[in-house]
């Protein structure tokens, strides 16, 4: 794939290919002309007290999100999409799914929700007083009914591509689309934890492949993709990788520096990354010995055996 030797501009101009602004996204947005961006993808702060956010009262947080979303709506093209990726706000061990409280902001703007995509991943905190959280959502909204959606760009392999019609006029022909199937609204991508090739110091960066799928489906070549809460630049990286243009704002200098380095490495073809379509690692298939519980094979491990016996008795139905 060909990527031009681009420079990273600090301010927006339609002629640039990559723009990274250090500072508050609302300040950046105020100078952007209406209808500039084809796609806006972001994961905003969740208001849970991470190092980069001041924990606000929930009403204040919603108001702050409303200001940013309203500006994003203004700078979005009429054929464009906004994808707001969120998890839970947690207050005294009680969870509030952020999509439920942010949805009204988009509907007040008369935006149309096209999907609420569930992003499932396998690693995270182990909860002890509720089930451990293993998904977040991406709310996809369009500005109008006339929106870009390139499904063929993001089809995935079928489970049974060899299936044929068994009756009717097409009997004997292959029944599935040779380009693959619709990836559906349940997306399984590993989250970026310590052994992920894309991991940086940022505590919650996007996997590139997640943004890449949105970029491929919701934009055309050379379109602008904007992220108001850019972090370490994953959205810009995905845009540049796919020959689109990328703009973003980030308050923390440390993350801006990494974002710029990652964009430069993308252009040079040296950014470590997990490629799209790579199957999720299965330790059993890979033959890892750690997938066999030692207490099932090693009878000398008295401690674990005692625990196992206790459990067996507890759940026994005899
Ligand atoms: C959830 S992280 C996004 C991570 C990003 N998706 C990535 O892949 O690196 C949210 C980011 O928003 C930044 N941020 C918080 N408030 C901001 C604001 N008002 N304007 C711009 N960036 C902000 C934080 O510093 C943080 O890096």
Structure explained in plain terms:
- The protein has 2 domains: about 10-280, Vaccinia Virus protein VP39 (Rossmann fold), CATH 3.40.50; about 290-318, no CATH class.
- The protein has 8 helices and 11 strands.
- It has helices at about 25-30, 60-75, 100-110, 210-220, 235-240, 255-270, 295, 300-315, and strands spanning about 10, 20, 35-40, 75-85, 90, 95, 110-120, 135-140, 185-190, 225, 245-250.
- Strands 1-2-11-10-3-4-8-7-9 form a 9-stranded mixed β-sheet, with helices on both faces.
- S-adenosylmethionine binds next to strand 11.
Considering the chains and any ligands shown, give keywords for the structure.
Rossmann fold, 27% helix, binds S-adenosylmethionine, 2 domains, alpha/beta, 11 strands, 8 helices, globular, 318 residues, single chain, two-stranded antiparallel ribbon
Distinct ligands: S-adenosylmethionine
Number of domains: 2
Give the biggest sheet: 9 strands, mixed
Q: Could you tell me the strand content as a percent range?
A: 15-25%
Q: How many helices in DSSP terms?
A: 8
What class, by secondary structure content?
Answer: alpha/beta
Query: What is the CA-atom radius of gyration, in angstroms?
Result: 23 Å
CATH topology heading of the largest domain: Rossmann fold
Quick one: CATH class of the largest domain?
Answer: Alpha Beta
By oligomeric state, this entry counts as single chain
Brief summary:
The protein is α/β, with parallel strands linked by helices.
């Amino acid at each position: 794939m060909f990527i031009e030797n681009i420079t990273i501009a600090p301010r927006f101009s339609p002629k640039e290919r990559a723009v990274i602004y250090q500072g508050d996204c609302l300040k950046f947005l105020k100078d952007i002309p209406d209808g500039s961006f084809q796609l806006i993808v972001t994961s905003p702060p969740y208001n849970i007290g991470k190092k980069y956010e001041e924990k606000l009262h929930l009403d204040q947080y919603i108001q702050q999100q409303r200001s940013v979303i309203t500006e994003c709506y203004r700078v979005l093209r009429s054929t464009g999409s906004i994808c707001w990726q969120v998890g839970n706000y947690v207050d005294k061990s009680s969870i509030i799914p952020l999509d439920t409280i942010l949805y009204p902001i988009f509907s007040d703007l008369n935006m149309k929700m096209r999907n609420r995509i569930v992003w499932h991943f396998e690693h995270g905190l182990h909860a002890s007083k509720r089930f451990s959280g293993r998904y977040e959502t991406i709310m996809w909204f369009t500005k109008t009914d006339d929106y870009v959606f390139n499904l063929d760009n993001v089809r995935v392999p079928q489970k049974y591509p060899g299936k044929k019609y068994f009756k009717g006029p097409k009997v004997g022909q292959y029944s599935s689309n040779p380009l693959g199937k619709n990836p559906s609204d349940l997306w399984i991508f590993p989250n970026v934890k310590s052994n992920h090739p894309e991991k940086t110091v940022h505590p919650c960066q996007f996997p590139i492949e997640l943004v890449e799928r949105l970029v491929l489906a919701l934009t055309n070549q050379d379109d602008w993709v904007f992220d108001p809460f850019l972090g370490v630049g994953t959205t810009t990286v995905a845009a540049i990788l796919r020959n689109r243009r990328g703009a973003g704002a980030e308050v923390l200098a440390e993350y801006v520096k990494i974002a710029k380095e990652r964009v430069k490495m993308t252009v040079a073809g040296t950014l470590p990354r997990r490629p799209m379509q790579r199957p999720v690692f299965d330790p059993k298939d890979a033959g890892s010995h750690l997938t066999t519980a030692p207490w099932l094979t090693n009878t000398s491990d008295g401690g674990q055996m005692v625990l196992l016996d206790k459990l067996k008795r507890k759940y026994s139905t005899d």
